[in-house]
Amino acid sequence: MSLARWNPFREFEEFFNHYPRLGKGLGGASQELMTAADWAPAVDISETPQAYLIKAELAGVRREDIQVKVEGGQLRLSGERKFEKEEKDKKQHRVERFYGSFSRSFSLPDDADEAQIKAEYRDGVLHLTLPKRETATPRAREIAVD
């Protein structure tokens, strides 16, 4: 009877080899970093009677590496999560977090006040507040026919 060596990570490796986008495999050469187009921060978008709220998950991204721009009716969120410098004596076994540049764009609602958008970054989450414009209530008036 021969003994078989049990590799506890083999099942994980097979799973990630079947779904390469999730982990790029566990083997040395196949475990490269994700490219810029491979990730975008997850966002939650909600609405209150006064504003639209966007929360973007940006853990590990420095405040100075985040840009928020409004142009042509679009809100664009972009930035970069930089890979930590490797140490000589440190061996990476798995890299699952995404690194590199990211970009997300959102069409602004017609009633969003572009001039009043506010951004706050805390605890790895970017909070964007897009206040709604006050809409004038339409008044009825009679128009004379000539």
UniProtKB/TrEMBL annotation:
Pfam families: HSP20. This is Small heat shock protein. Keywords: Stress response. Belongs to the small heat shock protein (HSP20) family. The keyword Membrane does not apply. InterPro entries: A-crystallin/Hsp20_dom (IPR002068), HSP20-like_chaperone (IPR008978), Small_HSP (IPR031107). Residues 34-146 form the SHSP domain. It comes from Aquipseudomonas alcaligenes (strain ATCC 14909 / DSM 50342 / CCUG 1425 / JCM 20561 / NBRC 14159 / NCIMB 9945 / NCTC 10367 / 1577).
